[in-house]
Structure formats: structure tokens, C-alpha cells
Here is the input.
Amino acid sequence: MTTDNSFPQEPHDGEHLKPLLPILDQPSTRRTLLKTAGAALGLAAFGEALSPLMVIPENVSVDEFLQQHYKELTDEDKKKVFARLEAETKERFGADVTITDSKPIPGVRFAYAINVSKCNGNGKCMEACNKENNHHRGVDQSYIRVLEMTKGSMDMENGSTTYDHTVPQDDKFYLPVQCQQCDNPPCVSACPIEATWKEDDGIVVVDYNWCIGCRYCEAACPYHARRFNWELPEIPPEEVNPNQGYLSNRIRPQGAMEKCHFCLHRTREGRAPACQEACPTGARVFGDLNDPDSAINYVLKNKRVFVLKEELGTKPSFFYFFD
Amino acid sequence: MTANARKKRNVAALKHAVRSYPGFLWWGLGQATNGGLGFYVWMIVLTAIALVGANAWAHQVARGMIVTNMTDHVSWGLYIANFTFGVGLAAGGVMMVIPAYLYDDEDMHKVVIIGEAVAIAAIVMCTLSVLVDLGRPDRFWHLMPVIGRVNWPVSMLTWDVIVLNGYLVINLHIVGYLLYMRYLGRKPNPKWYVPFVFLSIIWAISIHTVTAFLYCGLGGRPFWNTALLAPRFLASAFVSGPAFIILVMRILRITTGFAAPPKPARTLIQIIRVAMTINLVMLASELFTLFYTGGAHGESAKYLFFGSHGHYGLVPWIWTAIACNLIGTGLFFMPDALERSNTRIAACILCIVGIWIEKGMGLIIPGFIPSTLHEIVEYTPSLTEWKVTAGIWAFGFLLLTVLLKLITTVFAAEAHKTEIA
Amino acid sequence: MDGSRHWISLVMMLAILAGVTATIQLRGASDAADGGSTLEALRGESSANEEKSSAVRSNSFVPPETFPVTIRKPAGPPRVATNLKDVHGEAVTVACSTCHSTRSPNLQNKTPQSLDEFHSGMKFSHGTVSCLSCHNAADYDSLQLADGHRVEFTDVMTLCGQCHGPQMKDFEHGAHGGLNGYWDLSRGPQQKNNCVDCHNPHTPQFPKMQPTFKPKDRFLEQSRSEH
Here is the structure.
């Protein structure tokens, strides 16, 4: 600015751009005027640059913006929220759906076990998950990934999820991985806003309408169990599963995190999870840990059971066993 | 216009009967936006870049994070990398505060406010980096205490939000109060700022420690899960921060003639020499543990330095960083670096670039590669991410420029006033 | 002055320490509330949760109605296809006994290789059992147990269970063969597969499959990021 040798000059009315630069030596009021004009121009430019943000008021109603955390909603609030979500689903996805709020069954604690000797990696569980849970069809999303592992090693370094050949291969075994519903869940500790928590029946859920999408939980999860909605899911209307739960399989909003919830809209009604029903090998065992006669307790008492990454202290409710 | 005339105007400005703090801020904004052609070109270029970034971010919000190149495997990218570096920059400012206030270094006292200004701009950049990384920025209020639902004290991210905002408030208070007092021509009352200065020292260390805990607390990410991470963050912050401040002081000298005494920069160089050596030693011991032990825990480091399973995405980045850091450190140890020399400038730039990579792309990204299921998914930032990041830096520089302008104006006017008196 | 500075920094350190302690305690408390390790809880050691749940159950006023577990059954003895069609154009099938009642069994036949007339070329891979280990020479429309007792085709699981005890035990406990319907029988019925639904009795090994569904993670597709 030591090189500034400009002379005062008269600004033309309504034409503030040209005399904007050498404003230093303008009389004080005129300088202020010019700076105000510049600031106004800058603000207008920022407004224009940010104009794509206008989709937010278009897509996010005032009610949605102000919606409270799931745990703070009264039954009356929930009724309104679910009705709004049903209407939005009709409008955006063209499907008539019912959104319910299944509560944990008192005294029940869910667990899952997979027979590694039986699983042959056919992937029907992933497909069933995709359909049941209204996953994004564009990327064929699923809460499950099946790892093809090399016999003789438990090192996932030797695993692959992208195999595409007849299964099972003789030198391989198969390890389906989904949310382990940990008793000490790193994702829940990570979440800065309690948008994800562990319910009384052991299921870790996400309030998709509270999540801000920071993805810290995704970094914290040691099992690659969490998925982010990088865009709004696409699902043809005829493929939308109309039986939806608020904390489970309703169509997720863009920019929120999601994860396996043991099909709580089914399992809390006593039904088997979709992946278990779909498994053609009978490798999947699901049930209530608190019931001593349950199938899951039979497995835990009689089989050689292990959990993934036990050394991390996450205490999974998801087990693997050999015959 | 002559320097004399400018001084006169500054004094005139000081004589204005503005006594309230908002009035002072308004006056300051006016002063800080006055300048020559170079100043306006600089501001307009920065504004333009910030506009491009703002526009790219708005598109990202509208279309979803799909416009970034992040995936469920590499779920954090350039934004969080920049955030980490920014926190270091902010924390590094404290390396002027400690000599000035703990060791009563008179010369450092004169320029310590520059470090605080850098901290303010850096914290604002950090906040913006986190904001643009959110999938649902419209729900930001969920993060606010009382009206939202914060997971405190368990979530390290909640801690980070609290300490970063706290640090911003503390520094805004200190800088604002000291400048206001100078503007009023009164002696600052130590009661009103010294406690906050000491708070800011602890706080600066805490912001970077908490940011490191954010990563190293995750058991599922062995590359981050190391007790050395927080000390490494601090050591590198005490290089990048002072190096950045040295560059700022040089630019101020060239553009405004604001002449800092030579001693503070020398003190900073001494600090950098020590901090960088510690940083490199810690990096070396980290790498020794990873590579000598081997096994799955070293896989990320292997990918980072040598590539893995046919993927080499980060190899050029990290070797660039290593080269920059080593050469930069070498230059800092040359006697020339203690003088106002080009060696010093080159060393600062090299170390800043080296640490930006080492802490950003070289630390955040390999934490995700291989993924927790040991899949290798590579990541290179998308154009949108570069635009948004450039926008954030431009905004940070805009803010810093305005702050420095305000500081130099107040200082210059005050100096002149005492001269007249 | 110096004294006050030190005092202030001391207070700050204490505050941070208190925060950290609070974090650790809170995490510990949430662990305790979760009832400790699931594995331990399961393996018969009493846990708070378990006691609570049994209390809830015993207190429930009406004992829950239990829905049935249905095991799918084969329709009956197999029918053998002929190349003939009846007057309505329907394929004609015949019972095993149609031929076997007129011919006496050849006890030397133990594998499909030695069959030259009808069952030739049949794949068989089921250990060392021979045809008449399971098929009933006295009535080919039924099967027989190892002790010679007749068993109907619809009750084939009794036959399988003679040798495959561990599988049978797993099946009975819900750990083999999969299921459909309800895990909670107080809320709805359950359907289970029969051995021969999944295992061909002649070649019981579970068949190879071709995966048909694969999530398309972003790294698998073409770059779609720029606009």
C-alpha cells in the first residue's frame, strides 16, 4: 500500500465497481459509501454462491428441522413425526408405507451366531438385507459383507469381499460380517450427540433424524458395520418394503448414518431377522440370550465359539462357531 | 499518500469519541478494510476463492457427500486432514505466548498478539472444516449444549467442539481486550487478561491433545491407536505454528512496514529446532515399532510408505513430506536461519508443507487403509473437496488479514500518539 | 503476581483432571450397566439381566400361548416318471413298488455302477451305505431303519438321525437347518426344513452355488463424483 499513488476521483452514480479500488484517499464519507457498496456486492455474491442451499428449506420442513431426539419424543410427537415421514415417503418414493415404533421386549437380549462351517458365501443374506431394509438400489447397499477367507488364517488381510465365482471354494471359508451389536460399542462412545445408542435388548440403533453425519462412528467401528448415506437412496416404488420401523428400515435420509439393527421391526415382534430366513445353508442362529433354552444359548454352550477382534474389548453380541 | 498523512488519519481516528466496545469493533472494521491497490487485489482474490469454495460446498449439501471422493471405507478425507493441521496451527500460536508471559520475554510481548491472531483465524478454519464435513449441516444445533444433546464427557468429538470453541472465545477476548485498551490509550488491567492468557496456554495444549485423542482413542484403527499420537501432534504443531507466524511477520514487514524486533523470530526458530527434532524422533520410533514388529498393525504404514497389494496412492505424498521435513529441519539448523534470510523463509515453507502432509493426508487417510475388514480402497480428493478446502483457506486468510490490519493500525496509531505526546 | 499465576495454572490442571476422571467413571458405569461380558452371562453364570428377565417371565399372569413348530415333510413315497402321457395329456408316474414288487432285490448291488437297467447313471455319494441300508426291500414305497423297522418316506428324518446324531441334536435345538417365521413361539409359529429339503439323500453334500448379489461399494464403480 506504500505504492498507492491514486488520486481522488469522482465516482459515477450507480457505478461503484470502477472507483472501488483506489478508495483510500476518498473523503471519508465517500470511502464508507464505496466500502458499503463493496460489502453489499460481496454479500450478494456469497448469497448467490450459496444459493444451492435453498434445497434445504425445500426438503426439510420446519417440523423436521425442529424435531427432537427420539428419546425426547412423546407418543403424541411420534404419531405426528411418523405421519409426516409416511407422507414424505409417499411423495418422494411413491410408496404407501406404515412406520412403527417397536419397543424392546422386556427381559429379552438378542444375540446372533453364524456357523462358519456351514456358511458357503452365497450372499443370499446380503440380498435379503437389501430388500428388507429398503437399501439404496443404486449401489445395492447391504448391512452385511461376506469375507472369503483363506483356510489356515484368521487374518482378514487374506480375505476378500469381491469374489465372484462358484462357492464354496475348497481352500476357502466364509465370514459374514455385520454389526456385532457390541456391549461396549465404540460407535456409541464416539457419537458427539447421542444419535446412536444401545437399547435394552442389546440392539444399537441410530436416530436417522438426529444424526448430523460427522461419520466419527464409522471411523470408530472396528467391523465396518456402519454405512453413510452419501446421497438420497433410490428405490423403485414397487420394491419399497412398506413394513417400516422408525429406528430400523424406514428409508434413510441423505447425509445420515445407518447400520444393522437386527431387523428390530421384525425381531421385536417375535419374527426372525430377514438374513436368517434367507440363509439357504442354515448357518445363522438368532435368539434371546436371556432364555436358557434358546437356540443361541445352545450354540454358546455346545460349540466352539469365537468373536471377531475380541482383543478390542468391544464385547460383541455376535458370535461365530464351528461344528 | 505519505506515511505521515496516514499516521495523522490514524490519530484522528483514535480521537474519535468512540468509547464502547462495539463502536471500537465497527471502527476497526472500517480501518481494517482500508488499504492500497495491492491490499484490495489480495482481498478480492481471496474473496473470489472463498466464493468458489462456498459454492462448491452448497452443491455438496444439495447433492449429498457423493460429490466428494470419500467412501464408507475412507470416510474422512481432505476436510478432516485440514482440520487436524489447522488445530496444530492454532495450538502453535501458544509458542509465542509461553515465552512472552511465562518467561517475561519483553520483545516477544510486543508481537505475541500476532500469534493470537493466527490462532483465531486457524480455529475459524477448523470449525469450517468440520462444518463442511457434516452430512447434515442443517442439524448443527444438535451439537449445541442445552438445546442439542451432547454426548459429554464420553465422546472425544464433543470435547473437541467444546475446547475449540473455548479456545476461540479465549483468544477473541484476549486480542479484543488488549487492542481495545490500546485504542483507548489505557493500560490493560492484568486482572482482565493475564488469567485468560494462562488459560489459553493450557487450552492450546488441550485442543491438540483432544484432537489427537479423537484418533488415537479408536481401538479399531491400529495406525492411529498409539500413545505417541498426542505428543507427535504437539511437537509438529510447535513447528508449523511458529513457522507460519515467522512467515506472517515477514509479510507484515514487507507490506505494512510493521517491524518486529529480531529476537522473537530467533526464539521461535530455537523452539522449532527443538520441536522438529522431537517430532522426527517420535516419527522414527513410531515407524520402527510398525515396521520392525510387522504384522497386520503395520499394514497402514506399509501402504503409506511403500504401497500395498498394488496400491501406491499415498507413497508420493509421504515421501514429499519426509523430504520437506528433513530439508526444512536441516535449513533451520543453519546459522543463516537465525538471521532475516531466505534460508529461514524456505525452511518455514518446507516444514509447513511437510507437516501439512504428514498430519493430514499422511495420517488421516492411511488410518482407513486398509479398512477394518482389511480391504484396500484408495482415496484422492475430488475437485469439490479441493475447491471447498481452498475456500476455507481463503476465508482464513481474509480473516487473518483483517485482524492483522486492525492490529497494525492500532499499534501504529498508538506509537504515533506517544510520539506526539 | 507470580503467586496468582501459579494458582491459576494449578486450578486449570485440576479442572482438566476432573474432566478426565469423570469421563473414565462414566464409561465404567455404562459398562457395569450393560451387565458385563455377554459370553460370561451366557455360559450359565447368573447375571443381573438373566435374573431380571426370569422374574418378569414368572410374574406374567397368563402363560404365553405357544405356537407350533412345523417341520416340512416330503409328500410321500417318490413317484417315478415314465415317458407316457394319460388321456388328459398329464405325465404318467408310477410308484417304486410298480417294478420292485415284481422283482426280487439283488443284495449284491451296492452302488449305481452295478445297476444296468433302471437307476444307472445315478449319482451316489453318501459314505459307504448301500441301497438297502435305507430302502426297504420288503416294501419299496417305504424306507427302513438299521434295525429293519419300516419307516415312511414322510418320516425320513428318523432314518437320517440314526447316523447323523450331532446334526439331529443341532436341528432339534434350532442350530441346524435354518428356520422361517418366529423365533419367539409365544408370538407366532415357526417353520423348519426337513433334512431332504437341503440334502439330496443320494448326494447329501450341500451343492455349490453361484453368488447372485454383490453390494456395489463406491470403489467398485466408475468414478461418478464430478459434476
